[in-house]
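Entry: DNA-binding response regulator
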Amino acid sequence: MTIRVLVADDQMMVREGFSVLLNAMPDIEVVGEALNGREAVDRVAELRPDVVLMDIRMPEMNGIEATRAVVASDAETRVLVLTTFDLDEYVYEALRAGASGFLLKDASAQQLADGVRLVAAGEALLAPTVTKRLIAEFSKLAATSVKQPVQARIGELTERETEVLVLVAQGLSNGEIAEHLVVAESTVKTHVSRILVKLGLRDRTQAAVFAYEARLVTPG
């Protein structure tokens, strides 16, 4: 199946550049563009893309607010945030708002396409070390304000689910977690699904953010 993508960025050259790169892929089609966050939200409602490439800094409505609106209105559309530098607090806020990951704007065509495919498949773009470093850096700032509700939600998890959550936050794949815990990969998938449901989270990226803010994982 073709992955349908919306590109949201206030810079025309960025929109057109990403559109050209992605349309060159046999399994990806850019179905629309948006030049600000408000237009991105409207276009998602109209076009129902699989993935939105969402710039953070846009006029009228920024990428954080737009991400939050997209996630709230369309459970199927995934958001992949675009940024010019890796340790960006706004990107962290977008991840908290429900974005499934982020890419640097200087990513190669292959990295861009692979990121879109990964997010479209329901996974989170979490594996790169820089993503974990971003979450670790800015979760320290948010931990104090969300500590009590976060701690209460941890109590809903079993001991094994908590263990799996920690490993997810460390960037391990289901296969790596299965090997670490000496269980079947299907068992890990079940644990991850239950964790997301119990905590009301969208995907592995939000699970990682939650684990850092709950101090289950400490920045290292």
